[in-house]
């Protein structure tokens, strides 16, 4: 992974959102450009911002507020939703519990999926 990027990449994913239900999406050149940009950002910066996702500003604000409140809770409260095999690997992870390439990540996290 490179580390010489100058800014966090901002990627417009609207072509992906617009074609998400199109069975022929794999051949769409505009969509392939988005996929290439996502791939490059993951390889070079390790993270990125997205726009064109269609999520409303009020909803994003609400999610940020709820998230901040959760991470301010005492550890015992957060551990009530600890990630386990029984939880389907969904839930809270303390600092150092998530491991990437054999090294503990230095962040708290809540992993969700559906």
Automatic annotation (TrEMBL):
<dbReference type="GO" id="GO:0046872">
    <property type="term" value="F:metal ion binding"/>
</dbReference>
<protein>
    <recommendedName>
        <fullName>Non-haem dioxygenase N-terminal domain-containing protein</fullName>
    </recommendedName>
</protein>
<dbReference type="InterPro" id="IPR050231">
    <property type="entry name" value="Iron_ascorbate_oxido_reductase"/>
</dbReference>
<dbReference type="InterPro" id="IPR027443">
    <property type="entry name" value="IPNS-like_sf"/>
</dbReference>
<feature type="region of interest" description="Disordered">
    <location>
        <begin position="92"/>
        <end position="114"/>
    </location>
</feature>
<dbReference type="InterPro" id="IPR026992">
    <property type="entry name" value="DIOX_N"/>
</dbReference>
<feature type="domain" description="Non-haem dioxygenase N-terminal">
    <location>
        <begin position="8"/>
        <end position="113"/>
    </location>
</feature>
<feature type="compositionally biased region" description="Basic and acidic residues">
    <location>
        <begin position="100"/>
        <end position="114"/>
    </location>
</feature>
<dbReference type="Pfam" id="PF14226">
    <property type="entry name" value="DIOX_N"/>
</dbReference>
<dbReference type="GO" id="GO:0016491">
    <property type="term" value="F:oxidoreductase activity"/>
</dbReference>
<keyword id="KW-0408">Iron</keyword>
<keyword id="KW-0560">Oxidoreductase</keyword>
<keyword id="KW-0479">Metal-binding</keyword>
């Amino acid at each position: 992974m490179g580390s010489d990027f100058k800014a966090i990449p901002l990627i417009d994913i609207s072509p992906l959102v617009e074609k998400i239900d199109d069975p022929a999406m794999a051949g769409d050149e505009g969509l392939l450009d988005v996929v290439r940009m996502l791939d490059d950002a993951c390889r070079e910066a390790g993270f990125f911002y997205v726009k064109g996702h269609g999520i409303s500003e009020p909803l994003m604000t609400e999610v940020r507020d709820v998230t901040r409140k959760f991470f301010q809770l005492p550890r015992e409260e957060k551990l009530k939703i600890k990630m386990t095999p029984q939880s389907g690997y969904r839930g809270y992870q303390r600092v150092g519990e998530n491991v990437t390439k054999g090294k503990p990540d230095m962040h708290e996290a809540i992993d969700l999926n559906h």
